[in-house]
Design brief:
Elements lengths: L5 H4 L2 H4 L7 H4 L27 H11 L6 E4 L1 H13 L6 E4 L6 H8 L3 E4 L10 H10 L3 E7 L12 H7 L3 E5 L21 E6 L12 E4 L2 H10 L7 H12 L1 H22 L5 E4 L6 E6 L2 H10 L5 E2 L7 E5 L3 H12 L3
Parallel strand pairs: 2-3, 2-4, 4-5, 5-6
Antiparallel strand pairs: 1-7, 6-7, 8-9, 9-11, 10-11
Helix pairs in contact: 4-10, 5-6
């Protein structure tokens, strides 16, 4: 196993940081007369939530076969992305590699944290340009992070060379698996036991149908998770959202059923879309959406919006392409009806 000096990758002020100590750090029990946190003694949500989401982590640990101390729960994956920048990059000094077209928050968070962005676009087949990435990391010691998304958003495909990247980069590789539940057999989650520099992100927003709950997960070796717990706000995930995630885990059958329905509907959409003259290409997808090349993406998008069918125009990233989420059977048939009406 390749050895990393984690301390050399962490911002010095973060390594030395004394975290805020909240009332529930000093006493973590559930029974007692609580007069320690200046809470209102009346009401149903009057108490602060567990700051470390212990019950949720225990449940995830059993399902994912990962130790609880290797799990971080965030207010959505976006909070985790921001924390990673804060922990591992010095503003105005360090750099990150981002591989567009990909999820936009990697770039936004880099800009917020004043981190230099080194864009290394995907190849024409939407795979990583490994020659270019390795060349850049070899000669630029300021590169501390690489963000990759697999299955990738907005292209929908899995990335092939993540293992090679993790084994050959001396910084932190962040693998965003937001859509992995639609191809769960391909997760890199077991690899965190072997690789000290790998952080795997997952979420309750997609397959678990909890986008409104804002619950994201990071999996990594316990030293990295400890740093995240050190930097995060004291009560970053609400009691309501923790309970919603726990309830979703108890209803895993519903998740499996919805995934099956989404995959069936995706196959139906592909079959129907391929018959339309305005559709030029449908890219392979391991996610719950399709990236589709139209003869005129802007015109198609505007027509759908007029009919109050909201899709995502990706023409600015990939010429004449629109990203369409797989909806319910009724929603998908309404989409097809409007697309068929376009000449």
């Amino acid at each position: 196993m390749k050895q990393f000096d984690l301390q050399s990758l962490v911002r010095p002020n973060i390594w030395a940081l004394q975290p805020y100590s909240c009332a529930r750090d000093e006493f973590s029990g559930t029974n007692g007369t609580f007069l320690d946190a200046n809470e209102n003694p009346f009401g149903t949500l009057n108490r602060y939530p567990d700051p470390y989401q212990r019950e949720l982590k225990t449940a995830l640990s059993k399902i994912k076969h990962i130790a609880a101390e290797q799990i971080f729960i965030g207010n959505g994956s976006d909070e985790i992305i921001d924390l990673i920048y804060r922990i591992f990059t010095n503003p105005g000094k360090d750099s990150v590699i981002i591989c567009p077209p990909t999820y936009g928050m990697y770039e936004v968070s880099a800009n917020i944290n004043d981190v230099n962005i080194i864009n290394t676009p995907l190849l024409t087949d939407f795979q990583l340009d490994m020659d270019e990435i390795i060349k850049k990391t070899k000669f630029d010691s300021s590169i501390k992070l690489i963000f990759v998304c697999s299955p990738n958003n907005p292209t929908g495909n899995r990335l092939k060379d993540v293992k090679y990247l993790v084994e050959n980069f001396n910084g932190i590789v962040v693998l965003d698996e937001a859509y992995i539940d639609f191809r769960a057999d391909r997760t890199y989650l077991p690899k965190i036991k072997k690789h000290q520099n790998l952080i795997v992100l997952q979420t309750f927003s997609k397959a678990w149908a909890l986008a409104g709950g804002r619950v994201g997960m990071a999996y990594a070796q316990k030293e990295i998770i400890a740093l995240m717990n050190k930097v995060k706000p004291p009560y970053n995930v609400s009691e309501l959202n923790q309970k919603a995630a726990l309830q979703a885990l108890l209803e895993e059958h519903d998740k499996k059923l919805s995934i099956s329905n989404i995959i069936n509907e995706k196959e139906f959409l592909v079959e129907q879309l391929e018959r339309l003259p305005i559709v030029k290409k449908i890219y392979p997808s391991d996610a719950n959406f399709l990236l589709i090349e139209f003869s005129d993406a802007n015109n198609t998008y505007n027509h759908l919006v007029e009919k109050k069918i909201i899709v995502r125009n990706r023409h600015s990233q990939i010429e004449n392409c629109i990203r369409i989420t797989v909806g319910t059977p009724n929603e998908n048939r309404l989409l097809l009806k409007e697309l068929r009406s376009l000449k």
